[in-house]
Amino acid sequence: EPEVTQTPSHQVTQMGQEVILRCVPISNHLYFYWYRQILGQKVEFLVSFYNNEISEKSEIFDDQFSVERPDGSNFTLKIRSTKLEDSAMYFCASSEPPGFSEKLFFGSGTQLSVL
Amino acid sequence: AQSVTQPDIHITVSEGASLELRCNYSYGATPYLFWYVQSPGQGLQLLLKYFSGDTLVQGIKGFEAEFKRSQSSFNLRKPSVHWSDAAEYFCAVAPYGGSQGNLIFGKGTKLSVKP
Fold first, then answer.
1. pLDDT for the residue B98
2. Beta pairing class for B10-14 and B109-114
3. Any bridge partners for residue B65, and if so which?
4. Does B60 touch chain A (CB under 8 A)?
5. Is the Cα dihedral A82, A40, A12, A65 positive or negative?
6. In terms of CB atoms within 10 Å, which of A75, B10, B24, B79 comes out highest?
7. Does A100 score more than 60 pLDDT?
8. pLDDT tens digits, one per residue of B48-106
9. What are the C-alpha distances in Å from A112 to residues A25, A82, B12, B90?
């Protein structure tokens, strides 16, 4: 089965530093998403991205966050100035256009630790 | 606000025993309903989903789920659990007619399987 690939699997950073989390969605997918899961809490939607722009975002996705599809294969999440509370597992997902048969394919996640 | 409740944080069952994982949702209308599984070190994998029609939904790996509108529930079942089913299970909803990528997840139920 095709896979969504996320790198790195674990990233450690100092508070205030910028981080970029990388994802390679499935090649024929057009919709891309970021979710996060703080330890012990729910998986939370951050943002969806289609046609080179954000189509939906949650309250969590404030000005500190940005997403980009810099080339035809990568999809990135940037956190400009990390805070301790940004420590979480970040999941990337991709899907075909919405429809009855559509489903999200998730990557295995990047564990971000902010010290 | 929409919410998903998985009342059981951790369940242990014997291999070969039956399994039922509970999920309740709070939403004004019938949403789209999903069950995902996350094995250690893996991404979230879709087990099954309910959009409309038959309220008993069959999924992969021998799982099924039943939508009960009167109880706002979407419980996941498997008649005979295998050791490889040990994982974390997440129930999720998406607004009916809305983006299926903006999922609202429950906190998850961790399943342990004993020999």
1. 60
2. parallel
3. B57, B76
4. no
5. negative
6. A75
7. no
8. 999 888 899 999 999 999 999 999 999 999 999 999 999 999 999 987 666 667 888 99
9. 19, 10, 30, 21
Q: Cis peptide leading into B7, omega within 30 of 0?
A: no
The shortest CB-CB distance from A48 to any of B41, B102, B107 is to B102
Q: Which residues in A lie closer than 8 A to residue B2 (C-beta atoms)?
A: none
Question: What confidence score (pLDDT) does residue A68 get?
Answer: 94
Spatial contact of B100 and A102, defined as CB atoms under 8 Å apart: yes
Structure tokens, A67: 């997403």
Contact criterion met (CB < 8 Å) for B103 and A104: yes
A30, A97 Cβ separation under 8 angstroms: yes
Phi-psi map region of B22: left, alpha, beta (phi>0 left; psi -120 to 50 alpha): beta
Q: Is B41 exposed, middle or buried (0-12, 13-18, 19+ CB in 10 A)?
A: exposed
Q: DSSP class of residue B16? A: T
Q: Could you tell me the pLDDT band of residue B27, with boundaries at 50, 70 and 90?
A: confident
